[in-house]
Each structure stands twice: as C-alpha cells, then as structure tokens.
C-alpha cells in the first residue's frame, strides 16, 4: 500500500493512542486484533486509496502514454503494433504540414470580417495588458501567466482572422473555439434571462422550474437526432415555414456556417437549463432589502440591475461560464451525430477530429490533436479562472 | 438581456406580467416541442413523413404502433442487449464511483494528508520509465509493470530522508477536480490501447472501470462539500467509544449524508447513461451501449424517423422520469458543485 505518497496524520487522540500502543507490541500484528488495528490505523489511506489508484491509472497513466503516442508513429504489423519515435513531427504536420487545413484552416485571403476580428481581438489584448502593467501590482508569476495566456489568445485571434470568410476555411480548432464562444454566450444570455424572469414574483414558478430543467439530462445523442428531424427543411415540422420563406431548397447541412449553428442550437437547448438553475438560485439569494430600498428611492430597474443585482450574482455567473467553457471544449456527440462533422470537415470539433484520426488508425496524429486540445483548453480555462473568476470573487468578498 | 430588464420591477403591471408569461411560455414550448415531436413521429407511418409534416395524431393522421412493434418485437434482442448493457454499466459504475468517491471525500474532509512532492515525482518517473520500457525496449508488460512498481517503491523508501515540499489536502482535492478539465479524448486513446493489450475491449468491465474513474472527480467534489456540512460531534463521540473509522463511516456518516448521496448518485448515473465518446472507443458489439446503438442508426436508417423516434424515446424516458421525480435533489447537487467550485 505504501507506493502511494500519502501519509495520514492521526488527527484524533484516540487513534494516536492506539497507534502508539500497537507499535510497542509488534507480535500482535499477526493476530486478528492486529489486522483490525492495522486497518484502523491506516484507515485514512485506505479510504483515499481506491479513488487515487483509479484516477492515477485511468488519467495520469494514460496522459503519459498519450504524450508518448503523440511523439511517435503508430503502425500495425503482424505481431501487433509498432511505435516509432518521430519527435514533434505529428505536431509539425498539424501546424505547418499536410494537416494544417484540417487543424488550423486554409489561409488564402483575409476577409474584411477577419480583419475586423483581428483588430478587435488584438486591441482587447493590448488594452488588458496595458491596464495590468499600469496597475502597479505586477508579479513575476502573474506576468508570465498573462504572457502565456495572451500569446495563445493572440495566436487564436490571428488564426481566426486569417481563415474566416472569403475563400479561406476554418479548421477544427477554430470550429471548437466557435462552439465554445458562441454556445456559451447564447446559453448564458438566454439562461440568465429566463432565470431573471423566473425570479420575479409570479405564479407557477415551480412549474417552469421543473419543465426548464428537463433538457439538461437528456442524452446528447438523442438530442442530436431530434434536432436533425426538427431542422429538416423538407419533412421537419417547420417545413411549411421554410417553403413560405422561399428556403425550401436550402440544405443547412451543406452550408458550413448553418451546420455549425445547428450544432450550437442543439447544444444550447441542452445546456441553457444548467445556467438557468444556477443563476435562478443566485437571483433568489440576492439581498432583497437592498433592492426594495432602491425601489423606494425611485431607482430605475436598469440601475437596480446594474448596481445591486449584477454585482451580487457576478461571481456565480463567472463560475457558471467557466464550467460551461470546460465542458464545451469536449463537445463531440452533437457534431458527430447531427452533421457527421460535415459538410466536409466544417463542423468537426477537435475531439471529433481526434476520433476520426484514431479511426483511420493514425494514433500518433490523434494523440497530437488530443494534446493540442488539452493545452488550449487548460491554458484558456486557467486564465479565465485567474483573470476573471477570482477577481470577481475577491471583489464580492 | 436588455430586452428582459424593463420587465423586472415595473411593480408588476399587467403588461409586464404578460410579457414575462409570454416569454416563459415560449420557452416552455421550445423545451417541450422536440419531445412532443418525438412522440408523434414514433406513431407515424412512412407515408406520414414522406408527404411533408403532419402534426396531430388522430386529427391529421391515424397513428400506428408499427415502429414500436418493429423495435420491440422484430428487433427484440438487438434492442434489449444494448439497453441491458447500458443499465449494467451505468448502475455498477455509479455505485463504484459513489463508493470510492465518498470514502475519499470523507477522508479528505476529516484527516490531514501530506504527500511529499518528491515521492509523487518519483512515482510519475517510475510510470514513465515503465511505459518507455514496454514501448521502446519491448519488455513484456507484466514484467515491466512488476519491476517498475518494485523499483519505484524501493526508491521512494530510500528517498525518505530527502527534504521535500509537502502537499496538503486542498492540493489533492484540486488535483482530483482538475481531472474534469482533461478532455476525455486524451485519455481515451491510451485506455483503448491498454484494454486492447489485455484483451478486454468490448467488455462490461472496461466500460465500468472507465466510467467509474471519469465520474469520480464529480463525486469527490460534491461529497466533500456535503461532508464538510455534516457536524463532527457524533463521529468524535463514537471514536471515543472505540468505534473504528470504518464503522463510524458506514454507520454514522453515510446515513447522515443521505441527501447528498442521492443527489450525487443520480447525477453520476445519468452522466454514465448518456456517455458516448468512451463507449465509442471501448465497445463495438457485445458491450455496446444504447447511445452507440442510436448513433449507429445514422448509416443504416437515416431517414427512417419513426424507428429513430422509438429508440430515442426508450433511451431518454428513464432519464426524464428520474429528472422529473428527483429534480430537487439533482438541482441541489448541481448548485453545490457550480456555486462553490
């Protein structure tokens, strides 16, 4: 048992006494009493052991193998398989080589929209960095963390700006980032709006609460198929509407952006309830008396929301967004079933991209994509936590 | 957002009340319509779909149970086996995850652990060395694992005197929770290779162990919060009476934490039931779960929506029933995790 680097400190005196007594009488170790005592003395470790062992062997251990796989070429041979170390070749292929179009996208021309995105993105990064440097409270760790996060963000902005619109095409990394930003934005705004409405003094709140909760737990694969039926332009329930609008011949599955938006809509249907439930609890626990006092003073609803309600729910809101961002980076069921990643590769998320490579038995390339996803999502989530969630909590506290 | 704001105070004038009910009603429709559409589609004949949409059974068309009969009687076994697989895998993995997770959460909330950084580093080095030995040098994996484990243990023992920074409970907790950030696809490929090496692909065991691990962090996170709110007096007096920590845990702590256990178990059960990616990697035929069966219809009967609807209904029905019955519990679990995160 001692391969685990855990040492339990007996916290209670009774336990310490027993431990001391039994170390004096080693002979008792072999008796039944000794065994129960040993069990009891090590109960702390034994309690944590199964969980630690499982997590070690099914996530740390695979993480190491995955890193190894991403640096090698996988080949099936008659005796099984063969791994050949090829350094960073898998990553080079994704970033600069033959798989660049799939991962980053194709760079043919910069569209006006892309230029606008770059302008806004770089402007925002520069401004945030400037504000930090001007704030006077700079630490080495904070600076390094910001530099890493902002250079990654800058790279993403550059990639988006140069591959979006025109004749260019975005790759699976951009598609994933689109799912994360567009999906979480839609879910947060609608979920918070509904929670806000439901927190008003109206009848039937518990009914809405139960109904709105339903989609959260529905199997994503089922949602994907249901939305495929609903979105069908010819046989779906809204077909008369589409043909009245002259869209009867339009195939959303053949257009990259409509395919991506259908995925976002399906994902939002599922996840708006999560934002709704958490934000509803936040709204309901906001200081009632402050709101009522402001009402008596004649403050406008807008002012009350901005000055009282929002500051009190902001930390929770930031946490909800963080949880959603973490989960949205892993999206795979919806694009796989809803659009099968199509048209072409247009709606492939990174996880789906890695899965496709794995199915083509390119395990090295697959692991390299998975690791890239790990890097991007971890850096962005940690940055979001440290730069947005933590300050908001501190402000509130 | 701005659209909704004016409705907020307005001292509940009839107009703003109307707007609120209108919006909430609209959302109720958006939530329920897809489910309604599933039900009416499942009793349609092919002709009712092919001629454009019809909406109301008995009014627009005469419903037929042909799709239900096909899925339950004609396909029978092919439907029930994945269904049974899903039940087995979801239930067993939830029990294991809640068991192991709440034990760990309890210990972390009551005892102090101080793992040494150097031991952890040595352990990871040992694992990496074993992996290299197996993949590069082609050592038999059983030999390599045994030798690696023994060597690591000896080195860790030998390094006992070496001074090293120590970690605390919060670090262990953070480490476990941070597993959620890990995209499952990173672990899925090696887990696939691992099970392939030991010849256990496409078995219940592989899925159960994997799901247990994937859901452990959630259990630890939620149950840690729950145990922190359970008063310690009872346990301490039981300890003084000489009860072992195991008895204290099973006879005093667990019954007190029952609401938390129910909430956590349900959440984990539903997550395991819905899981798709790992099942896609680990199961092909024997251990195929119901989401995989439904997703596989893609190729074989894409536009045969009546069958699809039946399959989706039987897949999501248990989950929706659970959600409706126990909504309060699940919401409590979600709130704990989300707000305190």
**Number of structural units classed as domains of chain A:** 2
Helix content of chain B: over 70%
So, CATH architecture of the largest domain in chain B? Orthogonal Bundle
> Which architecture name of the largest domain in chain A does CATH use?
Orthogonal Bundle
Structural class of chain B: mainly alpha
Mean pLDDT of chain A: 83
Largest sheet of chain B: none
The main sheet of chain A comes to: 2 strands, antiparallel
CATH topology of the largest domain in chain B: MetI-like fold
Which oligomeric state applies?
Answer: heterodimer
Would you tell me which CATH topology of the largest domain in chain A applies? Answer: MetI-like fold
> How large, in whole angstroms, is the Cα Rg of chain A?
27 Å
Stretches of chain B where pLDDT is under 50 for at least 5 consecutive residues are 1-10
Broad CATH class of the largest domain in chain B: Mainly Alpha
- The count of strands of chain B amounts to 1
The assigned structural class of chain A equals mainly alpha
Low-confidence stretches of chain A: 1-24
Supply the number of helical segments of chain B.
Answer: 16
Describe the structure.
Chain A is mainly alpha-helical and 397 residues long. Chain A is built from 17 helices and 5 strands. Chain A folds into 2 domains: 1-69, no CATH class; 171-396, MetI-like fold (Orthogonal Bundle), CATH 1.10.3720.10. Chain A has helices spanning 13-24, 32-41, 43-70, 89-95, 100-103, 112-135, 140-163, 172-198, 205-213, 220-230, 239-244, 256-284, 288-296, 301-328, 333-338, 350-359, 363-396, and strands at residues 8-9, 72-77, 80-85, 105-106, 169-170. In chain A, the strands form 2 sheets. Chain A has a two-stranded antiparallel sheet with strand order 2-3. A two-stranded antiparallel sheet of chain A has the order 4-5. The longest helix of chain A has 34 residues, at 363-396. By secondary structure, chain B is mostly helical. Chain B folds into 3 domains: 5-71, no CATH class; 76-114 and 169-340, MetI-like fold (Orthogonal Bundle), CATH 1.10.3720.10; 116-166, no CATH class. Helix content of chain B is 74%, strand content 1%. Chain B has 16 helices and 1 strand. Chain B starts with 13 loop residues before the first helix and ends with a helix. At the A-B interface, strand 1, helix 2, helix 3, helix 8 and helix 9 of A face helix 1, helix 4, strand 1, helix 5 and helix 6 of B. Strand 1 of chain A pairs antiparallel with strand 1 (112-113) of chain B, so a sheet runs across the interface.
